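User: I'll paste a sequence; please echo it back and then give the predicted structure.

Assistant: Echoing your sequence first, then the prediction.
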Amino acid sequence: MTVDDTGSGADGDGRVDPEPAPDSADPGEDPLALRLEGLILGAERRYTPFQAARSAGVSMELASRFWRAMGFADIGQAKALTEADVLALRRLAGLVEAGLLSEAMAVQVARSTGQTTARLAEWQIDSFLEGLTEPPEPGMTRTEVTYPIVELLLPELQEFLVYVWRRQLAASAGRVIQAGDDEEMVDRRLAVGFADLVGFTRLTRRMEEEELGELVEAFETTSADLVAARGGRLVKTLGDEVLYAADDAGTAAEIALLLVETMANDETMPELRVGIAFGTVTTRMGDVFGTTVNLASRLTSIAPKDAVLVDTAFAEELIRTRDAPASEAAAAEEAAAAEKVGEEPPVYRFALQPMWQRPVRGLGVVEPWLLTRRDSGGGES
């Protein structure tokens, strides 16, 4: 149904009359939910899972694997699937038949897409749609408002989703192409950082749920903006913790210090601690794994409040790229040597201070380094 200037689709008092529920609807299902489903999917229920698999030309076993990977619940043999479900099965199976994807990779594609879009859909309904569908006039129901709002937003949100996905795909493809060799496309050397709010568990006992939700949202939003603006990649958020990655140590260091500085200037935020490690990382479905990630997490747990701890490999990388001196004594010697020949002394962005070695569970003895900025005078800030 389309709302137009002539008022079609509305009754005498101007209220919108949503489309009727599908004929295949279960009498116990909510009529509005069914009408919204028909609007969003753009097709009526026609197939049971067995019929959809047969129409797509795939086995029921493979169809079930794809559906579960996408996060869809088992529905028995209810007639709840549409032509779009058949087409999706046919496309995935076609990629496998053409040799473009292995069956295992096709399942991974289904799983990664399902997990990502499920979270997006939950957010849009919980945070976005609910606010827009508050009845604008007394006497109007949410049912009367929801359908036309979704109808207007759906094509715009769909186009925007595809645009962002293409942009992210282009950026990710560019990073892979720049990798040194084929092995680096899967196992890459990256800087991985964890940023963790201090005392979050205590806060959950003292704050109201709505207030706590606002704090977490502000933390995640601020972190995501800072990571993206400085050229890093936000891997995931875990409420009181964010995980990010960067191709080089200098970028990761700048992000870490900006996070600490930004949160310290916000009186509503708890203290922050950050741990960063540099090394080989395995990437799967947008996530990162491996010893480097584990080490960054452990460094975060032992970092002082409002401070950044890094591992030896990260410190060596900053020194190699001339983002930090090997020591303040070395920096002073370099400055003196440059002054003798009338040259400008090297300028370093960061300072590194070795800390006491300590055992870290599961990783043996590590030597953390305290990362800080260097002031314009050449010392630690």
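Confidence is low (pLDDT under 50) at residues 1-23. The longest helix spans residues 142-177.
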